[in-house]
């Protein structure tokens, strides 16, 4: 249902953005499908981009990287894809839908998200195995779950979560609601929820760094605008926004 | 289509037949899409994959439990709405149908705000009884009952309104207590409506997704029902998701058809 709504929205946006197709200077609307963890950063970057390129508008659709990849391979009319993992990007590039090779524009690491003030005094991954500690992880099929599995493997820790959430924001929501004591989420997600959540850094996170690739899509309705946005996302100005939000440079 | 059954009317008016055919096509076409993309060759291997049977068993079990809860609580509620008059009955009916219009995800959040650790009742339940509801199979049943019970209440209430109340009055004049009249007269009268409502309720509970994943989370064998398994399989392996959807469809259609034979053998 959510996917259908997104597709319908995209179709409408695409029709609205068709004005820029004929001319050489990019105009019209660029439709960007981006990983949920990029929500805050890309919203800001989109505003900056529109200011730097008058006449071009950016429309975002944020969601789980795998869902977005599927929307693209099913023919969603999108111009740019920014994924939270190379694996999800590969689904799009291997389908021959990318205009060029994907480039890594940001990296992200995991932290342990705990309720503000860290009431259970969690300082490392080993604390997640304590009896009575409720942990939410992402399902192994989504990027944050795969990254968490790598980090836990590196630490030699086996955690029994109470739930395997569908995406990183859903895992974080369980911490924000106070239903779990900890969740493994990206540093950027913990930072975005700083009012209710503390992010506990742990050393093993460096062994499970997530690369964020971006690519212009061959099949999109606004190829010129797509190229322009991808270039902007890799610029100094965008990097400043991304680092401010907790991402690392590639 | 013509002459396929011994319909009492002779000709089907075109004004009805055309939209009816279009409606049927619209409902069945997605199913055809599912069937055309089903990986038939490795179907047995995929059905035997670990977790598939667990999810199916959990789905059937929780949907049935949610239906039982809905019948026990919903039938009296329907009776109250149909047979008694009290101030604010319209408001009560609107409240009963609320879960129908509420997005299930919102229902899930609302349930967390009641039964969660920081919820209205959840904190007390944990302190007094050591019971935590979220992330348990109980939470799945509660989420499903919350979303599905209105279907039952509405069906039964409709049946009660259609049933002739004079039989109950006659029973009362013959000395039957209201409870006996309800049990011996009312219930048999509305049985077809109750059966239809129960089936609708069960089917809705079986397909429940939003409230379940929000309130009960997702953990294989404990809270991962078929719809949740389908959603998560879609993230990584669309073919597996199609197989799971197909399995859920086949099993539920088989059960519903079986029940129809047994229960609704009304001529």
Automatic annotation (TrEMBL), chain A:
- Alphabetized UniProt keyword annotations: Metal-binding, Molybdenum, Signal
Q: Which residues participate in molybdate binding?
A: 37, 65, 168, 186
- Give the top-rank taxon of the lineage listed in the UniProt record for this protein: Bacteria
The molecular function GO annotations come to: metal ion binding; molybdate ion binding
Q: Which PROSITE patterns match?
A: PROKAR_LIPOPROTEIN
Note the Pfam families from the entry: SBP_bac_11 (PF13531)
Under the heading PANTHER family, the entry gives:
MOLYBDATE-BINDING PERIPLASMIC PROTEIN, SULFATE-BINDING PROTEIN
Family designation: Belongs to the bacterial solute-binding protein ModA family.
Protein's UniProt name: Molybdate-binding protein
UniProtKB/TrEMBL annotation, chain B:
Q: Could you list this entry's UniProt keywords, alphabetically sorted.
A: Cell membrane, Membrane, Molybdenum, Transmembrane, Transmembrane helix, Transport
Stretches assigned to the ABC transmembrane type-1 domain: 56-257
Location in the cell:
Cell membrane
Q: Which domain of life is it from?
A: Bacteria
| Pfam families tied to this protein | BPD_transp_1 (PF00528)
Gene Ontology MF term list: molybdate ion transmembrane transporter activity
Query: Where are the bilayer-spanning segments?
Result: 12-35, 55-82, 94-115, 135-156, 185-205, 239-259
What is the protein's membrane topology class? Multi-pass membrane protein
Q: Which InterPro entries match?
A: MetI-like, MetI-like_sf, ModB_ABC, NifC_ABC_porter
Single GO cellular component term: plasma membrane
The record's principal subcellular location, in a coarse class, is membrane
Q: Which family does it belong to?
A: Belongs to the binding-protein-dependent transport system permease family. CysTW subfamily.
Tell me the PANTHER family matching this sequence: MOLYBDENUM TRANSPORT SYSTEM PERMEASE PROTEIN MODB
Role this protein plays: Part of the binding-protein-dependent transport system for molybdenum; probably responsible for the translocation of the substrate across the membrane.
Specify the protein name: Molybdenum transport system permease
């Amino acid at each position: 249902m959510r996917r259908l709504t997104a597709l319908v929205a995209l179709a409408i946006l695409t029709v609205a953005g068709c004005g820029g197709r004929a001319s050489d200077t990019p105009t019209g609307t660029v439709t960007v499908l981006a990983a949920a963890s990029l929500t805050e950063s890309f919203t800001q970057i989109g505003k900056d981009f529109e200011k730097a390129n008058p006449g071009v508008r950016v429309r975002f659709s944020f969601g789980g990287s795998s869902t977005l990849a599927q929307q693209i391979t099913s023919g969603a009319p999108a111009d740019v894809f920014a994924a939270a993992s190379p694996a999800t990007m590969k689904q799009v590039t291997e389908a021959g839908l990318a205009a060029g090779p994907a480039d890594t524009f940001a990296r992200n690491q995991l932290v342990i998200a705990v309720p503000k003030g860290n009431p259970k005094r969690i300082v490392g991954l080993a604390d997640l195995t304590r009896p009575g500690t409720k942990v939410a992880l992402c399902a192994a099929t989504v990027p944050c779950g795969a990254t968490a599995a790598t980090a836990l493997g590196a630490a030699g820790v086996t955690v029994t979560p109470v739930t395997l959430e569908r995406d990183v924001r859903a895992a974080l929501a369980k911490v924000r609601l106070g239903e779990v004591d900890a969740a493994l989420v990206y540093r950027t997600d913990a930072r975005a929820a700083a009012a209710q959540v503390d992010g506990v850094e742990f050393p093993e996170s460096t062994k499970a760094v997530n690369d964020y690739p971006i690519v212009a899509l061959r099949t999109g309705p606004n190829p010129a605008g797509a190229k322009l946005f991808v270039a902007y996302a890799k610029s100094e100005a965008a990097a400043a926004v991304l680092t401010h939000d907790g991402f690392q440079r590639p | 289509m013509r002459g396929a059954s011994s319909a009492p009317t002779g000709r089907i008016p075109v004004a009805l037949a055309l939209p009816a055919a279009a409606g049927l096509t619209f409902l069945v076409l997605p199913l055809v899409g599912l069937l055309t993309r089903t990986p038939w060759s490795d179907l047995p291997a995929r059905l035997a994959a670990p977790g598939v049977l667990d999810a199916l068993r959990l789905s059937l079990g929780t949907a049935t439990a949610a239906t039982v809860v809905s019948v026990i609580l919903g039938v009296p509620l329907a009776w109250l709405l149909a047979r008694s008059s009290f101030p604010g009955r319209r408001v009560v009916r609107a409240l009963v149908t609320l879960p129908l219009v509420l997005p299930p995800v919102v229902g899930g959040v609302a349930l967390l705000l009641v039964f969660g650790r920081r919820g209205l009742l959840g904190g007390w339940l944990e302190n007094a009884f050591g019971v935590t509801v979220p992330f348990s199979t109980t939470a799945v049943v509660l989420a499903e009952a919350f979303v599905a019970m209105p279907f039952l209440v509405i069906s039964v209430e409709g049946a009660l309104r259609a049933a002739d109340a004079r039989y109950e009055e006659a029973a009362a004049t013959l000395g039957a207590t209201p409870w006996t009249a309800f049990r011996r007269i009312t219930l048999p009268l509305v049985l077809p409506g109750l059966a239809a409502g129960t089936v609708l309720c069960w089917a809705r509970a079986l397909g429940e997704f939003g409230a379940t994943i929000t309130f009960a989370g997702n953990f294989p064998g404990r809270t991962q029902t078929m719809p949740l398994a389908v959603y998560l399989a879609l993230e990584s392996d669309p073919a597996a998701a199609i197989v799971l959807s197909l399995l859920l469809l086949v099993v539920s259609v088989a059960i519903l058809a079986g029940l129809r034979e047994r229960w609704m053998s009304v001529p």
